[in-house]
Predict the 3D structure of the following.
Amino acid sequence: MISVVIPAKDEVGNIGPLMKEICQALQGVTEFEILVVDDGSQDDTFGEVIHTAEVMQCNAKAIRHERSTGQSTAISTGVLHARAQYIVTLDADGQNDPADIPAMLAQLPQIHAEHFCIAGYRKNRKDTAWKRFQSRLANKVRDALLHDGVPDTGCGLKLFPRETFLRMPYFDHMHRYIPALVRRMGGEVFIAVVNHRDRQVGVSKYTAWNRVWVGIVDIMGVIWLGRRAKIAKVARSETRWHD
């Protein structure tokens, strides 16, 4: 079973079609649940989740934050309420394609690490040239400093064990650094080339200016965390039970 966690804010026009695509992509592939965390929307994103779940007859939960607290906090809320061993995250704007999820799941039998992340890579992005330039520059700077080996950390489509996420240090914007935080734990990161689509309804919540400054601070924080990480390898363990 997997839990599909979707942080959403003012996505009433996108969340219904996205949920339908998730159901179609995973039906017959694996047992699943959909958790949509409405991060203080001003529209009826919450109601649309419930309506779509009833129409599609799928297992879904809508959780609404009293006020907007950001994408990382919304993902954290979703993971905390999830029931499955594995978490799949994707953005609510419909630009991530749920049809890519089965291929990511197919990688699981070959992964033997306790902690890992399969990170989506939007190789052929459907953004403007200016936005693609911003992302390439940001990814190069991030990789040069963090050495996480991920070409596209901004892709919302990721798969990881629930337990892995719960062991990570929480901070705002942490969702962009999940691969680096997995490596900090001694885990492995895998890349999956995924589809990228145009947003059909609404506008993006992010701009170059509201990313760049917090990004610099966040990277410095992740470097600090990485340098202070200690990975213990148990050499021996012995137990005695006396009932």
